[in-house]
Amino acid sequence: MNKPLASSFEQIVNSRRAVRKYEQDTPFDHEAVRKAIELATLAPNSSNMQLWEFHRVISSEAREQVARCCMGQSAARMARELVVIVVRPDKWKKHAHINAGKIREAYKDQNDAKARRAHGYYEKLIPMLYNNDRFGVRGAVRKLLTFLRGLSRPTVREVSRSDVRVSIHKSAGLAAMTFMYAMKSRGYDTCPLEGFDSRRVKTCLGLPGGSEITMIIGCGKGTSDGVYSERFRVPLDEVMFEH
């Protein structure tokens, strides 16, 4: 009999740890990584813009180069594959166009009220939010306008260039967590890394200047000493509140 879905998910969540050492002599299924990335692309993301990329570092030479950029951390050095989660805010026009096209396919009646709202979202609102200049002047103007509007009504206030950047990274973080759970469901361990030289990693991977790295994830079959300590969390009443 199959386990209830909730029970299986709880088991995955409870067993997932940041594992920093991986077996080197056992076979590693790189296809499991591809399938986990497929699932990660189903993660919720802001406005369905999907401004993320998953760069797989597979060859031993490439892994060695990226591991050096991760300060030689064992989770990178011993990983059987590294997955670099990258955000691409520079692709917003292309992805907005793709979303608008999908809406045109979905609605036979283009004069339908829902279709008009959806078109307006990707053809007017998204460009207004994502079209930013280097110095953030457009974002500052949007901040001022939303402040004035917010004096009389509820208003979304996170509209600056930095706000949009945070939103894109949040979406990438959701995808990264989905990826790590998917890897655990396939019997593999992961470790998300933030300690790395982002400029050098971008050079290693040939990433464009407009890209940013959210995190690097080491993958493999964890060793018995790959978890450095017992799991610790602050008491629940420190982080959960009822209103």
Automatic annotation (TrEMBL):
Keywords: Oxidoreductase. The keyword Cytoplasm does not apply. It holds the Pfam family Nitroreductase. Residues 14-221 form the Nitroreductase domain. The keyword Nuclease does not apply. Belongs to the nitroreductase family. This is Nitroreductase. The lineage of its organism: Bacteria, Pseudomonadati, Pseudomonadota, Gammaproteobacteria, Oceanospirillales.
